[in-house]
Amino acid sequence: MTESDIWFQDPYAAFARGRQAAGPSFVPALGAWVVARHDDVLEVLRRADEFSSANTLPRDDMLPEPVRAELAGSIGGRPVVVNSDGPAHRRYRAPLLAGLTPARVGQLVPWIGERAAELADGFTRHGDGRVEFVSQYTSVLASETIGRLIGLEPKDVAKAVDGTTQALIMYFFPVGDEHKAEAARKFAEMRAMLDGYVRARHAEPRDDLCSALVAALAPDGGELTLEQRHEIGSNVLNLFIAGFITATPLLGTMVLNLLRHPEQWESLCAKPELIPAAVEEAIRYDTSMQSVRRLTTAPVTLAGVEIPAGATLLVALASANRDPDAHDRPDTFDITRPPNEATTRHVSFGHGPHACVGAQLFREEAQATLRVLTERLPNLRLAPQEAGAMGRSVVPRDGSLQRLNLVW
Q1: Average pLDDT of the residues in 367-393
Q2: For a Cys-Cys bond, which of 111, 255, 342, 398 suits 337, CB 3.0-4.6 Å?
Q3: Is residue 399 pLDDT above 50, yes or no?
Q4: What family is this (predicted)?
Q5: What DSSP state is assigned to residue 218?
Q6: Which three-class secondary structure state does DSSP give residue 351?
Q7: Global pTM?
C-alpha cells in the first residue's frame, strides 16, 4: 500500500502516525502539512488570522476551459462563509447564526421526527426486511431538512441533490473534461434554480434562511444587482451543499458503528436515554468532515515547527477526535462515555470563528433517527458481509458513506 493509499483508504492509521510526530508534518502525497494532534488542531482553528480559510475551496477559474464554458453566465462562484475571513466571513455568518438559533431549530424538531418516522415506516411497510439505508433514509432526511430550512419546495430538493452530486464530480472527481463539462451543465441548472429562489424571496420574503440571506446581503431593498445575486446565490448554494454532504454520511456512519457493536445497539434500544450520548460518540468516533484546509498568511511556528507563508494545512478533525491526550481509549466506540468528554472534547463541528453553525440541527436529525430506529426496528443489523462503502477523501470522507445495507 502506497503512502497515498494509506491516507485515502485507512485515514485513521495515517492520522495515528501523524500524531507521533513532534508537530505538523509535510505529506508530499497530499501536498499539505498535516496537523494531527488535538491541541495543535485547536490552535490552528483559533488563529484564523494566521491560518486562513480564504481560497480553501476550488473555484470556477481553476477548472479546465471546456468546463468553465459550461458555467459561463450562471449565477454563483463567489466567496461564502466557509472560505472567507474577517468582516466578509462575519457578514455571511450572521444571518446563518440568526436562522439556526436553538429556538429556530427547535421549531423544526417536530417535523424532523415526523419525517424520520415516515421514512422508516415506508421501508418497513413496503420492503422485504432489508433496506439500502443511505439512498432510502439518510440522504432523504438530510436533503429535505436543509431544503426545508432554506425554503425549497419539496419538488426542488431532488434537483438540488443532483446538482450537489454534479458539483462534487466537477470539482473533485478524477474524471475527464467531457464528464466534468456534463456535470457543469447540470450544476449550472442548480445555480439557476437557486437564483430563482433568491429573486422570489427578494420580492416576497418568507420565514426561511433564503429570505434571511437576501435581507442580510442586500439590505437596501432596491432591485438586486447582478453581483448581489452572485453573492447571495453562492451562499444559499453552499448552505444546501454543506448541510447535505455532512449530515448524510454522519447519519449513516452513526448507524453503521452502532450495529458493528451489537451489544451497544441492544443497550441503546433498552435505554433510550442514552441516545444523546450515542450521537456524540458517533460524531467523535467517525466524523464525515475528516479534515479542513487552511492556508498560512505569513510564516508561522506551530508546536515548534516552522511553516512557510502560503502553505496548505490539512487540519485533521478526525485525528484530534482519536488523540489519546484528549480522549480515554480513543479508538474504542463507547456510547457510555462521560458527558463532559463526549460533548466538550470532540472537534467534529470545528472550533473558533468557523465552528459549524448547523451543529444543533444535525444533533436533532441524529437523535430523531435513533429514536425511530430503536423503537421500530430493535432487531436491525448489518446485512451479511456488509462493511459500508466509503469514499476516498481525507477532507469530507465523501460520498462519505456511499452504501449501507441493513436487514431486520
Answers
A1: 85
A2: 342
A3: no
A4: Belongs to the cytochrome P450 family.
A5: S
A6: coil
A7: 0.92
